[in-house]
Amino acid sequence: MSNFVNKIDFAVIISAKNANPNGDPLNGNRPRENYDGFGEISDVCIKRKIRNRLQDFGQEIFVQSDERRTDDFRSLKDRADGCAELKKAGKDKDGVKYASIACEKWIDVRSFGQVFAFKKGTEDSSVSIGIRGPVSIHSAVSVSPIEISSMQITKSVNGETGKDPDKKSADTMGMKHRVEFGLYVIYGSINTQLATKTGFSEEDSELIKKALISIFENDCSSARPDGSMEVHKVYWWKHNAQIGQYSAAKVHRSLKVVPIVDTPKRYEDYNISNETLEGLTPEIYNGI
After folding, report:
1. Is 92 a domain residue?
2. Is 114 a member of any domain?
3. In whole angstroms, what is the distance from residue 135 CA to residue 190 CA?
4. Which residues contact 75 (CB under 8 A, 6 or more apart)?
5. Which residues make beta-bridge pairs with 10?
6. Does residue 242 lie within any of the structural domains?
7. What CA–CA distance (Å, rounded) separates 188 from 103?
8. pLDDT, tens digit, for every residue of 78-123?
9. Three-state SS across 127-158?
10. What's the 3-state SS for the chain?
11. CB neighbours (10 Å) of residue 34?
12. pLDDT band at 175; cut points 50, 70, 90
């Protein structure tokens, strides 16, 4: 049974400087932006980073990325079938037990939920079970429109040997894109009703908070060099009631992030304030 009894809302202020926070594969991997020119980071991308940090903390993760696998399973079905209890519950078509076992075993399942939809195999019955998780996260949007710069890059060697090995082939050319500077805000909430169903605990919420504070640790890449992505503030509103004293929308709106110059180029170019809500004061954490 879950001991999580107080609704939580949270917000994370992050910045990107000369980095690609979340490339769009349908747009040449350019940083995501909406039609108004504001930068975006998808909720899926944010959850991936949280999962990675939880994995760093020693937690068992169901949706693991290939480069960070801690087991020998190469697919979600293989990982699910690797749990004998879960496999038996699937054969018995016991959806309630199946969901309970999955939530107890993997923190990302009891946090974000998961759809288990696997086709019938040679021995197994098909599985189709949906679990709704208590942790919901919005896509992050930049406070101001972003400027994207692009550069052409070349590889020093051909990917494959062509007819003329001394001549550069087409696959040596490429493009690299980055955001000059962008300040983004991530909003999210943790629902008590769904926490009760998945077994999400107070201890799990502390791990989520810890992951948000350090979300860019061990996340560097050529697109996001170490230090180019930074967590500035994490606001953590813990209500004194199960359904919350205020709606999540009102709590999130209480955080004001306003540019104080025409073209912000750094974190200090914004004024950040928090509107007082009676009986609800956020805990505020600085990124590490």
Report:
1. no
2. no
3. 5
4. none
5. 188, 236
6. yes
7. 20
8. 999 999 999 899 888 889 999 999 999 999 999 999 999 887 654 5
9. EEEEEECCEEECCEEEEEECCEEEEEEECCCC
10. CCCCCCCEEEEEEEEEEEECCCEEHHHCCEECECCCCEEEECHHHHHHHHHHHHHHCCCCCCCCCHHHCCCCCCCHHHHHHCCHHHHHHHHCCCHHHHHHHHHHHCHHHHHHEEEEEECCCCCCCCEEEEEECCEEECCEEEEEECCEEEEEEECCCCCCCCCCCCCCCHHHEEEEEEEEEEEEEEEEEECHHHHHHHCCCHHHHHHHHHHHHCCCCCCCCCCCCCCCEEEEEEEEEECCCCCCCCCHHHHHHCEEEEECCCCCCCHHHEEEEECCECCECCEEEECC
11. 12
12. confident
Structural domain of 262: 8-58+133-286
273 CB-side CA count, 13 A: 7
- What is the C-alpha R_g of the chain? 22
Residue with tokens 């309630």: 96
Q: Residue 125 has what pLDDT?
A: 58
Alpha-carbon distance 109 to 64, whole Å?
A: 12
Largest CA distance in the chain: 74
Q: Does 181 map to a domain? A: yes
Spatial separation of the C-alpha atoms in residues 257 and 226, rounded to whole Å: 25
Number of domains in the chain: 1
Reported as a single tens digit per residue, the pLDDT across 141-174 is 999 999 999 998 887 777 677 666 666 666 667 8
CA dist 220 → 78, 214, 225, 248 (Å): 29, 13, 5, 32
Which residues are within 8 A (CB) of 116 and not within 5 positions of it... i.e. 6 or more apart?
76, 80, 98, 102, 127, 128, 129, 130, 131
Task: Work out whether the CA dihedral 158, 164, 167, 171 comes out positive or negative.
Answer: negative
Residue 23, token pair as written in the block: 């490339």
